[in-house]
Amino acid sequence: MTAAALLPSILASLPEIIVIVGACILLIAGQFAPKGQDAVLVWASVAVVLLAVLATFTVSDGTQPAYTGMFVADPFSIFFKSLFYLSILLTFLLSRNYADIEGIGGSEYYVLLLLALAGMMIMASATDLLSIYVGLELMVLCTYVLTGFLRREQRSNEAALKYVILGAVSTGIFLYGVSLVYGLTGTTQLDRMAAAVTGDPLDPGLLLAVVFIVAGLVFKIGAVPFHMWVPDVYEGAPTTITAFMSVGPKAAGFAVILRVFLNPLVASSNVWIILAVIAVVTMALGSFVALVQDNFKRLLAYSSIAHAGFAILGIVAGGADGIASVMLYLLIYTFMNLGIFGAVIMMRNGNFSGEIIEDYAGFAKLHPGLALLMLLYLFSLAGIPPTAGFFAKFYVLVALVERGFVLLAVIAVLLSAVAAYFYIRIVMVMFMREPDRAFEPALTPMVGAALVVTAAGTVGIGLFPAWFLKLAQQSAFGG
Amino acid sequence: MAFPLLSLIVFVPAAGAAFLMFLRSDDWVRWAAFGFTLLDLALAIAMLSGFDAGTSEMQFVEKQPWVPTLGITFALGVDGISALFVFLTALLGWISVLASWIAIDRKVKQFMVSLLAMQTLMLGVFTALDLFLFYVCWEAMLIPMYLIIGVWGGDGRVYAAFKFFLYTLAGSLLFLIGVIVLYFEGGRTFDILALMALDLPFDIQSWLFFAFLVAFAVKVPMVPLHTWLPDAHVQAPTAGSIILAGVLLKMGAYGFLRFSLPMLPEASVYYSTLMMALSALAIVYGGLLALAQDDLKKLVAYSSISHMGFVTLGIFALNPLGLQGSILQMFNHGVTTGALFLFVGLIYERTHTRSIADYGGLMKVAPVYTGFLALFVLSSMALPGTNAFVGELLVLSGGFAANLALGAVAVLGALLSAAYLLGMYRKVALGPATVGARFKVRDVNGREMAAILPLAVFVFWVGLYPKPFLAIIDSSVTHLLQQVHDRGNGP
User: Fold this and answer.
1) A238: phi then psi, degrees, rounded to nearest 5
2) Distance between CA atoms of A92 and B71, rounded to whole angstroms?
3) How far apart are alpha carbons A71 and A60 in whole angstroms?
4) CA B255 to centroid of chain Cα atoms
5) CB atoms within 10 A of CB A151
6) First and final CA of chain A: distance in angstroms?
7) CA of A380 to nearest chain B CA: how many angstroms apart?
8) Is B162 on the interface with A (CB under 8 A)?
9) SS3 of A148, please?
10) Are A81 and A89 spatial neighbours (Cβ–Cβ below 8 Å)?
């Protein structure tokens, strides 16, 4: 490949290159930064992301394939990259003070987050099973390390170890599926796979391969039966990392699943039945187990399992509306979930962990404004209008009913009524109990800014969903 | 573009809620809430005075695109069925503020904000011409109502708030699926008027009818989905009870009138006997339960179940008398039961007990209070000359015309209501003045009078001269019945 032929590819992947180069520079420069000057690192990381944002939107021009079909910069990937930028920027804002309190604010923390971002971006753009694998591994390796970042805490170490082992197994399963696909079709490129198979798409070998690939990917989004790691990792990891993992890497997993399912080969097989079962079981497990949690982070872990189940329903529905509904769901979920995690992160101050739900008793009496924000996120997660969470679920249901899956839609709404119970239970603890302690939320300007952005998204998309809906639809059609 | 009167009516309380957030003193908050609800009431009266009773068309219609790619519009309008409820909501909203003046003494600001938010959403439900908008308002009401019951309620408030929330949520979620199915059947539109013109196959109508039924029957509430109501009523603060009984319960019945009947006419005709039987059951069962209550609020709550039974009976009689009667009766029930909850709240503020056994001879210490109480008790048991007499008479005439046996059962309910209401009044107001010896009871003051008098006016107005009210309802009812019977005489 000549340099001239390489140029378009480089341009198409410029955002990824910027993030990776930026992360490497920060890794080295971070060693020379004087102690206690961590704020510089935060702003430098933000600057790297903003540069990548700039690159994404200046070079975006329709669909640009790159690297001989392994990579593509298209509206679909740009939608997801925007979502990743949003989640990583909010994570930076939330991290600054929390990292100080926990004593984890070294340059590695931000560098690893940037590298995870690069991995996610590659996943969103990858059109070859191998480039998907590269992105996936880059992302999960960073999150393994970040999970164990609370070096002195046993549960953080335990969570990281658990995550590594289970994650490695799932990656192995994924790779096994890829090798089967290669053996059967002679290619790992998503586009060429369909062309290579002329026979029955229900060939058992191929079906097995698809099931293996799906299993590997489903692990990353934490759906049943590959969900066991989620509660432990979410509880053990630093809360900022939990917040990040619940939206960014999860959305990246969905991006890959959507990309694989856009593939006519997979779409023509009956994999949707497997997905429908996974979706229902995932929602049911997440909703019912969350009912008995008293740790806020574990509850949010099960809640995120339930939400993943709901979003999978959009993939089951398929079609343009189905794909767009998943994308919109993930975007809205990013706002509301980072919002509620932001509130939990803010509560971590002094010797108050903010992780036990009962500890929030009477919070509304002492801090009505912050309690109102949390109420907003919680009702949005429960899917009550006029918040964005309702519209996210509504659009998935529309896509389901459009395809005739009325029974699935009924199951979905009944399970979300179950899920509503544990969200409003937190509201009850905050609003309907008397306080027995004073709260000192660490409401720094950065955390405040993150809360404002997430609240604006949670209410704004709920009241005026038109623009965001159109964005998701256009990105889905373009992909 | 015409003057957006309905938008103004809907959003004035919301603007008030936003404004209240910036006030610091509790007194300012009370007066501001008072001002905004009064303004809203004035606008609602302006709407009624400009209302053309001669047509069944939607009036004051506004239409803005909201989510064009899904065919969702922001569309408002009123016809003869909804106009009275807009007025009732505005009236009771104002009275609720008055009723909470001293009853709510902590977190006043949050309470008034919830109350005003509630009012915007209730008005949105009654004026929405877009199913999506309707659903958003319908469901969003759960948030402020959950807080009103759960934060400012009685001792068992948390349980009651949960029960209210989960019952209503589970009911309305099936309705949501029904709405989406209807959306695709109607060619991707949420326009209520367009959906009314649909001619759906009977089996789809049946499914949708039951999906809608669950949501509406929980709200009304119809036996056997009524068990949330006594808890919610007993635990809610006075204003919450007034809103619950006065407006929220009407929404279920309004849902039948606005959606089930015109959109699913065949199913409505087919299942009308079942619905009338359930209504008659609610009338008698609610009445019997009310007879056995010692708690004043519970008694009024169970009487609500019984009275709402009359409303649904009239609706599914599917004749002009029954429908007119049930719409008028909904208005009457809002006025009368709202007033009864207000009275229970007033006396509870003074004595802090709701047990009937604790009272006796109240007439001697608070003659004005007991005098007005007598008026509303008589109104609630449908004495001729009061508002409920007109409504119940129409409903029963319609009921008898549709089904003689069930009509006869309903009359039994009317007798029961006389028994429990008069029994309650005798124990509370008459006899030796034991209550005066135990509690210091003062009579009603000017502010309380301001809340009582408008309701008393409507008791007599509707009771003696119901014509203007029936005129508003009339042409829409005729049109609705036409919609039902033109297409409804199915298999």
Assistant:
1) -55, 140
2) 38
3) 14
4) 12
5) 10
6) 27
7) 11
8) yes
9) coil
10) no
Q: Which 3 state secondary structure label does DSSP give A295?
A: strand
- Residue B390: which of B331, B339, B304 has the closest Cα? B331
Q: In which residue are the tokens 């969350």 written?
A: A290
Which residues, numbered 104 to 133 in chain B, qualify as contacts with chain A under a Cβ-Cβ cut-off of 8 Å? 107, 110
Q: Which of A264, A255, A274, A374 is CA-nearest to residue A323? A: A255
Select from A375, A413, A431 the Cβ nearest to the Cβ of B177. A413
Which amino acid would we find at residue B31?
Answer: W
Element at A230 (helix H, strand E): helix A229-236
Chain A neighbors of B136, CB-CB under 8 A: 385-386, 390
Tens-of-pLDDT digits for all 491 residues of chain B?
Answer: 578 889 999 999 999 999 998 988 888 999 999 999 999 999 999 999 988 888 888 889 999 999 998 989 999 999 989 999 999 999 999 999 998 888 888 888 999 999 999 999 999 999 999 999 999 999 999 999 999 999 998 888 999 999 999 999 988 899 999 999 999 998 889 999 889 888 889 999 999 999 999 999 999 888 888 889 989 988 989 899 999 998 999 999 999 999 999 999 999 999 999 999 999 999 999 999 999 988 889 999 999 999 999 999 999 999 999 999 999 999 999 999 999 999 998 888 888 888 888 888 888 888 888 899 999 999 998 888 899 999 999 999 999 998 888 888 888 888 899 999 998 999 888 888 777 677 778 888 888 888 899 999 999 999 899 888 998 898 899 889 988 888 766 44
Residue B77 lies in a domain: no
CB contacts of B135 in chain A (<8 Å) are 385
Report ipTM (2 d.p.): 0.92
CB–CB contact A409 B68 (8 Å): no
A418 in B contact zone (CB under 8 Å): no
Q: Is residue B280 part of a domain?
A: yes
| The CA-based dihedral angle spanning residues B95, B99, B102, B103, taken in that order and rounded to the nearest 10 degrees | -150
Domain that holds residue B392: 274-491
In a domain, B359, yes or no: yes
Total domains in the fold of chain B: 1
Task: Answer whether residue B135 is part of any domain.
Answer: no
Task: Give the Cα separation of B375 and A342 in Å (integer).
Answer: 55
Q: Are A470 and B162 in contact (CB < 8 Å)?
A: no
Nearby residues of A3 by Cβ (< 8 Å), 6 or more positions away: none
